Amino acid sequence: MTIPLIPQETIRRKRDGDTISQAEIERFVRGITDGRVADSQISAFAMAVYFSGMSPDEGAALTLAMRDSGDVIDWTGLGFEPGAPIVDKHSTGGVGDKVSLMLAPIVAACGGLVPMISGRGLGHSGGTLDKFEAIPGYDPFPSIDRFAEIVKTVGCSIIGQTGELAPADKRFYAVRDVTATVESIPLITASILSKKLAAGLNSLVMDVKYGNGAFMSTHGQAKELAENIVRVANTAGTPTTALLTDMNQVLGRTAGNAVEVVETIEFLTDPAGADKRLVDVTIALAAYMLVMSGVEQAVELATAKATAALENGSAAEIFEKMVAAQGGGNNILSTHQSKVVIAPVEYVIECAGDGYVNSMDTRAIGMAVVALGGGRTDPTAKIDHSVGLTHICQIGDRATAGAPLARVRAHDEASAKIAAAAVKGAITIDNEMPVMRPIVSEIIEG
Ligand code: URA
């Protein structure tokens, strides 16, 4: 006998704090996918979960039902060995977070296989897909066969959300976004993991960020999310580790799209000159990806291998090959100055007084990039890849009156000055050297 879907009953039980069965969750998610559950019912269910929470088993059932709401990539069917080191990283997002761009080639240079499905930026945080689209010709939507071929031949490929991966999440998230129900740990977990697990990975590393530029502002909230994601992903059969990382300042020295591509190329070709926090978090994530995928047994060895791949130029070579394979042209490492367009006006933001860079309102800096046109507040909006911020100072830097805190790249002086005022107002200078936070504060293992 088929048990009918009665959405209001599921909602009522969740509202009252009952545990709902796997079968009932699956029915509800099928109803989200095929439209039998109305937006109002999705919204009520989300609010019930927001207040009542979910048990680990319910969370895992929701994640798996959402994963199975669309295509699930089968890498063995695409010609990969069962158990191949197919691994990805997902970041909860922030400002200046260009880590994926250099990380995928580093891991590929060490023997990992990285089919990375990335998203666009929304609100103050940037998106990997937008950054790659700053490279003229780069095709973020190859066919699944071409995606697999690039991963096989180059070692990594970074593309946008493809086909019908987790369509239930697309609808569920859109409703949560407008009903104040995004901030629920079981719902965030199911949303992120349904998409990642639909990509058919053999292992996953999460970069869960905390701080004033992150989705989770406190370390405690981020830890709770990281622990839940690790628990659910491992229960679902995808070995996963999470790193808790600091997002109380811009990551690296740039924020924008084209400017972040240029920072990535400089990072890969001249790692000695790269921002230390960016190097540290990238190498830490690479090391855990190599361990989780079984390429290396120990974190120390994996760290050394990833560092060598960065320093000996093999990761840079893979980045170049990946860009070429995706239509961005040959020799991007040596030709980017003429290809990747950066807005013509450069405006220096000068420091008002002496001291140390003490704190940053990272979100406000991200919003300054959005206001320049480099980000979006509506998922369908077009963005200007060429604008952004460069030479951004870091917390703990010595500051002197008149010295640059950052530079704005814009199309005209008027918009540059508006961005400059916003960035200047977001950075505090103090006589005291601030307490420095480590970039990676904790590792949550399954
Ligand atoms: N990112 C997602 O993909 N889903 C959420 O629910 C929150 C952040």
Structural class: alpha/beta
Distance between the termini: 38 Å
Q: Please report the first level of CATH classification, the CATH class of the largest domain.
A: Alpha Beta
Which H/E pattern describes the elements?
HHHHEHEHHEHHEHEEHHHHHEEHEEEHEE
Largest sheet: 4 strands, mixed
Question: How many alpha or pi helices?
Answer: 17
CATH architecture grouping of the largest domain? 3-Layer(aba) Sandwich
In CATH terms, the superfamily of the largest domain is Nucleoside phosphorylase/phosphoribosyltransferase catalytic domain
Average pLDDT reading: 95
CATH fold node name of the largest domain: Pyrimidine Nucleoside Phosphorylase, Chain A, domain 2
How many independent structural domains? 2
Physical arrangement of strands within the biggest beta sheet:
1-4-5-13
Provide the helix percentage.
40-55%
Say how many strands there are: 13
Radius of gyration: 22 Å
- Enumerate the spans where pLDDT stays under 50 for 5 or more consecutive residues: none
Percent of sequence in beta strands? 5-15%
Q: List all distinct small molecules, including ions and cofactors, that are bound in this structure.
A: uracil
Which of globular, elongated, flat, extended, rod-shaped describes the shape?
Answer: globular
